[in-house]
UniProtKB/TrEMBL annotation:
GO CC annotation, single: acrosomal vesicle
Domain of life: Eukaryota
Location of the region described as Disordered in the Swiss-Prot/TrEMBL record: 1-51
Biased composition (Basic and acidic residues): 21-35
GO BP: any one term: protein kinase A signaling
Taxonomic lineage of the native organism: Eukaryota, Metazoa, Chordata, Craniata, Vertebrata
Protein name, as recorded: T-complex protein 11 homolog
Family: Belongs to the TCP11 family.
InterPro entries for this protein: Tcp11
Amino acid sequence: MPNPKETASSDCNDSQNTDCSPRKLREHEDSHGGDIPKLCPPNIPSSNSPQIHSMSELMETASEVSKMTIAHEIVVNHDFKLQEVNLSPNSLESRVKETVHKAFWDNLREQLSKVPPDHSPAIKLLQEIKETLLSLLLPRQTRLKCQIEEALDIELIKQEAEHGALDIPNLTTYILGTMAMLCAPIRDEEIQRLRIMADPVHLLREIFRVLNLMKMDMVNFTIQTLRPHLLEHSVQYERKKFQELLNKLPGSLAYTTDWLHKAIAEVSNSDLLPSSSTSGTNGPPVSPCPMAAGKVSFIHSPTAVLNQAYMDLLDWEPGREHYPETMLMDKTRLHALQVEVNQLVIIASVLLVSGNICGNELISSPGCGNRLKRVIKALLEGLPDIRSENALLDISNQIHMEVDTILHQLGYPALSTDKAASLKGQLRNLGDKDNAVRILIEQRIQTFLRHCLYPGGQNSKNLLQGLTSIQEELLEIGQRFGSLINHNRQVFGPYYSEILKKLLLPVGKSETGKIS
C-alpha cells in the first residue's frame, strides 16, 4: 500500500501528472451472439411469480450493488475520492459523537492521573496506533516494519507500565517521526503542530485524527493507481455484476423497458430519424414491415430510439418516478447536467435578446458577455424552477442595471425608456413555454448534445452556430454527457438490444443488428 514519504512525494505527484483520461474501452463484438446475456435465464421464475427473499439475500444484493456503484463511480468520476464525513454541528449525530468521544478521552485522562497511573487504556491506544502505522506500509518496507514492531512492542510496553518505567512522551515522539515519514506532503504541517503539544491525552487524540486522514490519503492514492486497470475492465465487470443482480431479481428491467417504449413513441411522432450523414453509424432508420389488414408498420433504428431515450434523461420531470434501472447509478450526474443545460438555455436566451435590443457589438465587447453570464448564473444558482416569473423578473432588472453600467463605463448614453421596457419585457417573456427565442436556443442545444452521442460528436463545433456565448460551457457539458452515455451504452448495450428487439420487431421476425 502506498503513502510512505518516499512515494508520497514522488509516486503521488507522478499519479497526478499521469493522464487519467479514460482509455477507449473495447467495443462489444456484435458478431458473437453468445456474448449477449439473457434477461431472464430459463431457471429464473417469471417476474409475475411472487418472489420471497431472505434478509441475507437482500443484504448480499445490497452489497453487490454497493460494489458495482463504487467501481462505476471511480471510472466515470475522475475527481472521485473519499472524504471525511463532516456532520452538522447541531445535528443529533454530531452531539452524540462529541459526547461519546469526550467521555472516552476524559476517562483516559482520569486513568493517567491516578497514583500510580493506570496505563491500560493508553496501551490499547498504542496497540491501535501500531496497527495503523503497519497498515500504511508498502510490502517492500520490511526494515521499517521491523523498526515499528520493535519500538512499539506491546508486551514490552506492558512490562514497563507494570514497573512504572513507561515513557509515553518518548513513544509519541517516535510515533510522530514515523508518521512524518509515511504521510503525504499535505499532512506535514499538521504533524508539525502535533510535535509542540504537551498534553499527552490531547496529543493521542490528535494522533488518531491525523492517522485517519492518512488512511484516507492511502485509499485515495490506491484508487488513482488502480483507475487505469479499472477503466480497462469496467465494462465487463459492471455487466457481470448487473447480470448477477438480474439473476437474483428477475423482471428488474421493467422501468428500462417503459423508458425505451416511450422513446419509440417519440421517434414515431417526430422527425428525429438519423440523417444520411449518420446512417452509416446507425443503419437504415426505418424498414417497412407488412402487418395484418394490409397496414404497414416501420421498424425504427434501435440506435435512433436509444439516443432519443438518452436525450429524454435531460428533460426528466423532477417528480417523475420509475427511473430506468440501467441509469440509476448516473441519475444524480444526469440531473446535474439537466440543471446545467437549463441554465445555459436561459443564459444564451438572455444574451441573444440583450444583443438584439442593445446591439451585438456591446454584448460581444471584451468582458461584457462574461460579466452578464456571471450575473445570470448567480441569480439562477439554487433556484428550483428557473422558468419561474420571479427568477426572470430578477434577471431582467439586473441585466438592465448591468447594461446601463457598461454603457456608462464605455461613455455611451443609457438605454431609452422604450428600449429599457422592451429589454425587461422580452427577458421576462423567456419563461413562456412558447417563447420563440427560448425554443430556438433549446433546439440548437439539443441538436448539439444529440450529436455528442456519436463518436467524436463532442468536437463538432460547427453545430454551435448561434451559441457562441456559451460555447465553452456547452463543449464541456457535451464531453461529459457523451462520455457518460458511451460508457452506459457499452455496459448495457446487449440488454437494450434484447428489449428493443422485442419492442420493435413483430412476433416471429428476427434482428441481427445489435447496439454497440
